[in-house]
Amino acid sequence: LQISGYLNLLANTIDNFTHGLAVAASFLVSRKVGFLTTMAILLHEIPHEVGDFAILLRAGFDRWSAAKMQLSTALGGILGACFAICAQSPKGAGEMVAWILPFTSGGFLYIALVNVVPDLLEEKNPWNSLQQILLLCTGITVMVLLSLT
């Protein structure tokens, strides 16, 4: 098996840990924030996990092993949620959320921009760049509208 498969599993476990942190911390703020965060992460994770599964197949894992390994990385999310809950202050979620939500949000923004901006800069067709920027703005608009409800 290629080392890239194992590196992908490690990265996916860390990614799922931060997702668990974000979901638990969001629910400690409010149910609304928790549900919005959960939906955003689910929408991100579905295509992400399919891509990771394909990476594992290319690295030499058979389908069953790749599926089991992908499922095992989900434990990182559970550990992240447990960590966030255990880090909660007896005074309430305020102190804990003061560092967890900015940390996870910054990580998500960094990863998104590292993946999106280089593709936009390399795009030769201005119409494709415009479409990507419009879709990015649409996503931001949807998040703002959901936060207002």
From TrEMBL:
A Gene Ontology term for the protein's cellular component: membrane
An example molecular function term from Gene Ontology annotations? zinc ion transmembrane transporter activity
Q: Which domain of life is it from?
A: Eukaryota
Could you list the residue ranges that cross the membrane? 69-87, 99-117, 129-148
List the catalytic activities from the record. Answer: Zn(2+)(in) = Zn(2+)(out)
Q: Mind listing the GO biological process terms from this record?
A: intracellular zinc ion homeostasis
Principal localisation: membrane
> Family per UniProt?
Belongs to the ZIP transporter (TC 2.A.5) family.
- Name of the molecule in the record: Zinc transporter ZIP13
The species is Sula dactylatra (Masked booby)
